[in-house]
Every structure is written in C-alpha cells, then in structure tokens.
Structures
1.
Amino acid sequence: MSSSEILCFVRYFGLIVGELVPMETEIWKLYIVLRKIIDICCARVLQPECSHLLDALVSEHNRLYLYFSNCSLKPKYHILTHYGRLLLANGPISLTSSLRFESKHKVLKAFANAIPCRINLGYTLAHKLQLQMVNRFLNQTGITPDLLKVGSCKNLNTFDEFSTQLFNFLPIELKHVVTSAPWIELRGISYKPGMLVILEINLNNCIFGKIINIILGNSRTPYIVT
C-alpha cells in the first residue's frame, strides 16, 4: 500500500475491527498508542506542551513493540523518538512532512524499473523528467487545467437572500448579484447543497459543516455557505 493508503487504514482500523476486539486484549494497546501518535503528528495546530505528550507516547509505543515482537527496534522507531523535539522546534509535524514530495517518486521509480542500464541512473532519470516537463510546456497540457466544473447557474442577490450578519462577512465581489450553482466539481471532488464537509480537523475530532448554498462571483472562485 502507498503511504496515504496506510495512513487511511490505520486511522479507520479501529472502526473496522474495534468492536470485535475484547477489552482486555493487551496488544490492542499498541494500536491505541500508535493511533494517538498519528493524531498528534497529523494535527495542524498544536500547543508546545504536546511535545512532552508525544515523547511519552513514543516511549510507550517502543516499549510495547519490544514486549510483543521480541525483536529489536527498527531505525524508524529511533527516529520517532526525536519527533517531540522537532515539534517543539519547528511546530506541527504535518507542516514539515515530505509526504507530497515522495508522491513524485512513484513516477521516477517506474522510469527506473523500465531502464535496463544502471550507469549514471540519476542523470538518466533527471534528463527524462526534464524532457517530460518540456513536452508539457510545448503542448500546454496539465499547465492550467480547468479545475472547476459548474452546474447550470441562476442569478442570486446576496443582499436579499442572506442575513445581514452573513452578508457583512462576504467578500466584496459577492455583495451584489452573483450566480448560484446546484453543484460544482472542484479538483475532481463534487459538492452540492445538503452535503457534509469537514471544516476543521483538530487533535480530538473533526468539525463538520452542512453546505447550504454554493455561489460564484466574477472570478469564478466558488464560495460554499455552510
């Protein structure tokens, strides 16, 4: 599985099999500790004191791993012991993650497996990647894609339709007649009134909002009213 798939699997593993695991199962504690570590590492807003909590969780995780596996720790578990110090020095771990950069490696690894010669492989991969980029520039493919698809729109007067409190929070371009869409598709994800979306993710839970309306101004920037 990819790193994103593993992250999703670990997050929802408790919901999938949690009710089938007896409360007194000792090894289940290892998953609970790992889940708490992931919550802290993926949080985008944290207090400095969370670094001490992270150190304690990592220590407990490594202790349980040694107890249940009967083998030595892997290097990644040693690196994990430094996360508390990094969180205190640099802020939330998720903001310094290289996850999105490593997604590019999938393409490069496919190129590397297709190339029979291993002499100066780094130069070959860099040259092939540059040729691919030049082709995109010349053909104008994937440079400025239409990331927004909109359903049939109708005019909407925000001053008449919205409350005064909500109207005051609207951007300048929306404080007149705008267009209202029954649905939009932004970056491959569909949105429509009545759907629930995640507004904020914090350490403990998610804050959800219900889409009431979707409006667009002259800049075609969609605004979702929740």
Note: The mean pLDDT is 83.
2.
Amino acid sequence: MLMNLNRNYVFTIYLTIIRPCLVASQANMSSGSIDADKYSVAYVTVPSTDVGKTIGHGLVKNKLAACVNIVPQVTSIYEWKGEINEDSEALLMIKTRTSMVDKLTEYVRSNHPYEVCEVISLPIKNGNPPYLKWIGDTVPEN
C-alpha cells in the first residue's frame, strides 16, 4: 500500500511540476530566441500591381526588404484635400529589419507616384524563428 502511495505521489509530481517544465524548455529550444522589435512589416499602398512590382523589386534588389507581398486589390476610403475618396489600390506587405525602415521609407517616397504615400511599419513581436532569421540574413544591418 505504501509503495502505491509513493508511486502515485511521484506520478503526481511528474504531471504537475516536472513535465510542464520539460515541455516549456523544449518549446523554448525549438522556437529559438528572437529579439522583439528586431524585424518589422511595412505596409504601402500603390495605385496598381505594376507600380507595386516596380517598388517591390527595387526594395529587394537594394537589400531594403527580404520579401514583398502584393495584395492585388484593396479598397481605400480616405479624406484628401477636403473630399472623401474611394479608390482601388494594391497593398504591399514588406518584411524587413526595423533598423532599415527609415531607408525603406526614403526609397518608397523617391519611387512612389503619390504626393503623400502611405508607409507605415509595425514591429514583428513573434513569428517563425527560421523565417525571422532569414529576414536577418537577407537584409543587412543598417
């Protein structure tokens, strides 16, 4: 009887303390350690996919972005010069290093047809570690 109690006690300790620690440890090892805010995704709207392709190719060629996805059609509703407008545009989703966002913005502003172009960026707080590492390997430090 005492042996069964000890076995149950050990099993309970394993389930409640040891196993959760092992699972957490394995999860940390498999996900790797990624610095929050080291990478960003920038969003840019463009009047057409052709303009988006031109800007996207330039960003990747100049090592300002690892990847540019083009969403071919979004509808934008906005106020401009006192009037409400509704336009079809394409959306660029650009993956880069946070340290390169200023240079990326300069490049877009110099190559974009709009008087005031949208370039906004958000830090990537979490993601697939090999993918984030690839961004870092592809886009050099500022």
Note: DSSP finds four helices and four strands in the chain.
3.
Amino acid sequence: MADRSFRGLALVLLLLRLFCGVPPCLLLHGNGRAVFRGSVGRLSGPAWAKLREEPCQVLDFRGQEQMWSLRLRDGRTVLAEGSKEQGFFVDHCVLPEALLFGNRATPKEVRVTETVLAGKALEARVDISRNREVFQELPFLVADRSDLARSRLAAFEDLQAHSEGERLQSAFEELTTGGLEGKCMEEAARLADSETSVEKIARVLARWQCNSQRMSVPPASGLYRLHSFLQHSCAPNCAVGVLFSTGEVLVRAIRDICKGELLTRNYEREAFLELPASERQQHLLQTRGFTCLCERCARESGEQKLEYGGKLTADSDKSAQLSSGCGTCRVQSIYGTGIGERESKRDYAQ
C-alpha cells in the first residue's frame, strides 16, 4: 500500500512537470558541470545583480552557445554561464521519473524485507553469483551538499537540537556534522517557529541524513529508493558505483550471495575495513549512531553474533531513539566516493 502511494505521488509530480513543459529527467553536462534537467536553483554572480537569488529551473544546456537555458519564476527564459560565480547554483531536484520508470521496479533477484534492528533491508530472493550486477537506479531526490542548500540543512539541524523533544533532538544531533552560516539562521528560524514544524523538519532531515548517497557528478547527495535499503557490513557482499553519465547508482555482487541473505555494503572508504574491530565499532557509533552487528565484527571481537532480526541492545539505544522519532526512516547514513563511468568503463567503490 505504501509503495503504491509513493508511486502515486511520483506520478502526480511527473504530470505537473510535463504540464509545466519540463522534459523527462536527464543529467546534462556542460561547462564543467553536470546538472539534472528540471533542477531548481537561484541566479548568482555580478551578471545577475538585479535578479540575484531569483529562483530558476534548469531546462537545457545549449552546446553552441555554451550556455545554460534557465526558466525564471515569471516564465521568462534566460541564458547563463555554468559557474556559480557568473551563473547559478543548484539547490535541489526531484526526479519522480526515477520512481516510476527509471528504477525498473524492484528487480526479481531481491525484495524489501523488515528487520527489527535495521528496519527495511534488501534480501536476496535467489542465489546471486559473484560479479553479477544486481540492480541500478536513478535518484529520486538530489540536493547540493554545499553552498546555501547545505547551510540550510545545517541550520535546521542546529535549531531542532535546541527545541522540544530532547530525546529525538539529542540523538539526531549526535548523528550530524557541519557548521552554520549566519545568513541561513533567520530563514531556518521562521520555518521552525513551532514544535510541530520542528518535528517535521527533524523527520525530513533524518531521512536525508540517514539515506543519502554522495554522487561524483554533480557534487551533490542523492536519495535512491532501493539503494537506501542496503545494510552496512565490514565484510560486504556488494559494491556500489555511480554512473558518471546519468547519475544512476549501480550495485554489484562482489561474492556469491545465497538466497535469503541480506544485501550489504561498506558505508565507509575501503581503508576503513583495515581497522581493528574496536575502532570500526567506535567510529560507526560516533559518526553514524549504530553498532555494527556483522559477522566479521562479532568474530573479531569474540562476541556472539546478533542477527539483524534479533532484539535491540543497549548500544543500539541511540539508533532506537532516532528511529522512534522518525517513524519509517532507518538509522544509518550512506556515504561513498562516487565512482563514475568514463569511456564505457564501470568502476565500483567497495
């Protein structure tokens, strides 16, 4: 039922975009930038002194003029350079096509399942052989991880750490990083002027913080529906890469996966796996708010392995606090080095 509602909302968003004359999503490349068609941003730089901070939507990149075609709020179309100093910066982009068509639905090899400790997860429905590509999908939401967009998120994170509901707020605070820019505080305060709005902001931010995947191009974070269900493991069975030309995430099996096994990946850089179990555990708890229960950690620490479907532990309390406050979001943060495709060669980050 929830999945049908999700797709219903995506269909409405897609129809609205088509009605407004925005073509289907596509990652556009030009002037050293890569931006999804339909992205929302603001004009910037001296060339737009009178229209500075004016909202705009990316329509296309015109190769002949080497300029970006942008639609303003009043319907006018203007051309701008690609640099943030002389053109525009991107705030966010919603890609409903990814939920309707781009993800090729849920692949027959996997299914979404519920676990006690990790929330939703991906489970293998069949045996999956090593080096097999399990699935690929487009992001359904992309946001710039720097500049004003990042500052707004940081401002929201700081505000809700000082509001009511301290159990949720303190748990969320420990999972976030980043400084604040003063120019964003006033806007954040207006949006967070009531306990209700703070709770809504906290839920949205928690979902983003927990489930975003960094992309190599553009320098942004994206949310992927299926990819966000991959669990962390210090002995992962999958590797993840990002397709340079389209922004699609690619998930490949790096060893044989048995039917019924959860699909896992390493949330950190590859060097993280060389650390001793105690350091890995401490790092994950401090930066991501959960204790790794993978088989490798249990073996190296000499403890009995606790399955993802088992009972909550004391070390999982921080994760439980955030999960109980966020409803459906899973307590994990997915970051990685975006690996792109150049000259038809696909590389993966483990």
Note: Residues 5-23, 160-185, 305-350 have pLDDT under 50 and may be disordered.
4.
Amino acid sequence: MIMNKELCINCNEVGSHFVPPSLGEEGFFICKKNKREKDLCVLCGKETKYYKDTHVDLRENYVDGAGQLCGNCSDNV
C-alpha cells in the first residue's frame, strides 16, 4: 500500500489544516482539527509528556484527587 504523506492520517483530507510533518508521527501530517493536547502540571503549569486522553493508570507522577505533576514538581513534593 502506498501512502500519500500529504494525506491527513486523521481525517483523510488533503489541505492546509495540517500540523507540520516534523510534529507528526513517522513524517506524516497530523490534522489540526484532531490535534491531541498535552496535559499540564497542576503545580507549575509546565507541559507534561502525557496527552490529556492518556489513562491515569498509564502515567507516572499522577496524584489522585490533584492531577498530573511534571517530573520536577514530583521530585520536589
């Protein structure tokens, strides 16, 4: 199967609504319409390595009842 690197892997459309390929997986464009957002640290507000839709059981530094901590804040708590 030949894949078109200008074809959005999320909505299968070609157009100008893409995130640059350097941000996409395997060089493919990713649709801005469906862009996944990273979770922020509840203490310092820094972006963490986890997406908001990542289940809490699959995360490190997640505090039940508080939320996601970045590595630095987790080390200092």
Note: The chain has one helix and six strands.
